[in-house]
Model the fold of this input.
Amino acid sequence: MLDKIGKIKQRRHHLWQGGGLAAIEKQHERGKLTARERLDLLFDKGTFREVELWIRPLKTGFDIDERELPADAVVTGIGRIDGRPMYAYAHDFTVLGGSSGAALLHKVVRIQNMAGDSGLPLIGVVDSGGQRVQERFGVGGGALTERAYQFRPMQNSGLVPQITVMLGPCYAGAAYMPTQCDFYVMRKNTTFMSVASPQLLKTVTFKDVTQEEIGGAELHAVTTGTADFLADSDEEAIEMCRGLLSYLPLNNRESPPVVDTGDNPQRKDDRLIEIVPSDLSRPYDMHEVIHCIVDNGRFLENLKFFGKSIITGFGRLNGYSVGIVANNPAENGGSLNISTCDKEARFIRFCDCFNIPLIFLVDTLGFPSNAKDNYGTLEEQSRDGLLRTATKPAFAISEATVPMVAVYIGKCFGSARLMMGTPRMGIDFAYSWPSAQVARIAPEEAVEIIYKEEISASEIPDEVRGEKLAELLRKYYNYPYHAAEQTMVHELIDPRDTRPLLIRTLEDLVHKKPSPRPWRKHSLISR
Amino acid sequence: MQDRQRAEAEELAGRYKVPPEYVKAILATKRAATMRDKLEAFNQERTIMELGAPDAIRRQHENGKLTARERVNKLLDPDSFRELDLWQRPIATGFDIGEDSAQGDGVITGFGEVDERPVSIWAQDATVLDGTVGTVHARKISVIMDDAINARTPIVGIFDSVGIRAHDAIQYPDFFSTPRLAYLQTLGSGVIPKISLVMGQCSGELSIVAGLADFVFMVRNTSYMHIAPPPPGMSNQELGDAWNIHAKVTGCCDVLADDDGDCLQKCRQLLSFLPLNNMEMPPVVDTGDDPNRREEELMELVPIDSSKPYSMYRLISLVVDNSEFFEIRRHWARNLITGFARLEGRTVGIIANNPQDKGGCMNLDAADKMSHLVRFCDAFNIPLIWLTDTPAFLPAIDEEARGLIRHGSGMIMANSEATVPQVNIAIRKRYGGAANAMPTTNLGGDLGVAWPTYEPGSMGARGAVAIIHRRELAAITDETQRKKRENRLTEDMQWGLDRSVRAETQMIIDPRDTRPYLIKALKWLRNRKQEWLPKKHENIRI
Done:
């Protein structure tokens, strides 16, 4: 028996070598860690248990049949992160470039099923050359390929958090499975993800493009908005993933973990009085406000480089996870556009799935006609389907049943209210700073409608306009009381009280459980 | 006596700023002594209110538009409309904008029938205060939306309004306004079919309310829709035109109509395909078309040479009942065709590549177009049929930069989420990524069959040889020998490929049998059910 135990141990150690020492060295030369090194870093020390290490690849009829292909190029298993159990898979690039055959797909599906059924998060560490050509063209012709490979992520979506850490290439069809996750960590320089390869684009469009240009990490973080987090190294990417998980519950039935952050829940930050300029047209950075409010000023921002006029991310209030959605007046006056709408809606929907309360910090110009972002001018944006996209935040807020609190800090008029939520859309408490200017219609717009005839009939329209605007402001727009008078805001608060008040409010909302929505398979957010 | 009454009516009309006939009618209801008299007097009052303001109605007609009341009556079965809240008046604003005579506050709400099936409806009345959204106006819409959700009937909203009533919005509480409408649109999402008919101006907040419906109809020339005000030097029409912008370019217009009559007719037609709510099956209609009908023309329609286009529309029309196909987003992302049809009288959703546009390639817009229809059909128990002929995704640099992967994976999630019956027929090309875009069983679908013209995915045999036998070939120094060996290996590879092609489809069917085959398959799958673990909602890629 002891002899057998020894042999098993020996063989296990052999398989752990993956593609062998030479291949491991090559991986290290590329500045990359091996699959097992990555998982050791991801999980608490010594807690990772591998499963199905012993699997044998399918026979193909080609010369790769003579090679061992340990674990069929993927490491799967379960471990602990901050003491909590979670599942993971990691492609082993040292074995045939981490290419996927039927055995690999079986292992990944198994781990997807385990994660979903046992209610634990799934982390995918991607580093794969794509489909294993030999199997596709081999004797089996891919007949044993697992059907569920692509559709289990959707079944798990909204059930358990799914995170992809991309540390290597990912092309064409292979890109679509990992992108179905909730959050995406991408590493610079070693990762490329695109539908078409540069070679194919050269053939079709006769243009030379680099991998970086069509699928680099920076492209996905800045332009396409696919990569939530951008890392410089394998180690940093994994650390980001651990950090993110610390805010999340294990599944949709649980609440997020509560952490003793040591920060005083009664803390009042005097800086909050100074940050917002008295002239609201002058920019300020909403990050500063967030840092003053959350525990120890710690804020984990996702999609930091995409749709920058809105900020989304996680923080803690008295140790409880919160999702923060904030306009950033430092970027185009916090104006909204196609990118911010996608970004905001997606973040809200994630938090709603996983019982994370939402805080809205509001100061936005809405959709000004001189808007510009990486989608171009307003006209170009509307050509890209701005109207289909702008419905998404309104939908996501209306759909959400987690506690939601809005703090109005600066401007919010007209359609911007639908983008940032109002009590009529399910916001539980709305507070307003003295600086806030919130109204159902902007005074500049109202004056054009109400005094249209007077203005157009006058020989000095600008003066009439100015006069009438002043009158409207005096008679009707009684800032900051206006919004409270109209029941859009429940209370006017001292900015310094924001943190203690938010903590108290969320405590009061802990048992929130709105009456059930009409039954449906799923809602139909705009496409 | 009569003179005194007339004088009294005129005096009151002057004092309260309403037409004298209206005052007379109100007075008559008070004076009436019998049930019959009271009824007659109320009917008289109602008739006066329904008549509206003749000048405004004339202007509406001159602009090529019908009035709200004409639209409602045209959309619904004759005499089926039952109006609600006609007597509600706008809140006084103090700005003298004519609120006193603005009956119904610029919106008509109620219920009625289309093809004898119930529907809830509201229509903005541009002849009353320009259809502006005041508090009462919004409240009436909220009420009918709420009712529609509780009654589980489809809801149709007709948009024709210059926007928010500023006079009202600056002074009254935010009890009922566009955020409430957005909330209710969301509450009903996936529960009842929601249709927006944009038949005039629809801008700002209202455009979001309109866009939150499942289907947005627009009328050529007379309707436009935009969220932000147009930049200087640009007209509303230029920014949000039905045809030039939303039908062709943005994809925000699901159905384009030529005029009001056409729009209402098309809405009736769409409703005829849909169930009343998500708990019902779509209606079964006796179309009279033979379920066993075989089509000889299908043998000739598709060229063997896969680089040659043909009309996928023709193919669809030969297969479905009476060639009736209701297309969604027809003029946008034309490389993909989506819409509704019937097979043996039962509604199906059809998704087909269009070889006449971009060679049938998939792209970002087509991905959005597909997920829109797939998710709607899934929510409302409508089986899905894919007709595949695509070389997969279009290789293009700007597509990648716009976020092709993000939108593409949203589409795959939509496809894999579906639990209604799903059948895929590979007509010709099904290359590479098409396996995900036009899924068969790989994303949880039921059936993947093919025509004899079927062409499989993946790379060609020569490309595979270059990868698999790279070392062996590189070791042969003599070029002729290497070429010879490479050709032999490619032949072998092709042989393997030819055989695995057959394995990748579940059956090759006779093209002429396509219609009977689909009908039998859907009969087999009629009671399909699939349960998942409970969750609030998915987190689909957006």
Q: What stands out?
A: The longest strand of chain A covers residues 74-81. Chain A touches chain B through 121 residues (CB under 8 Å). The mean pLDDT of chain A is 92.
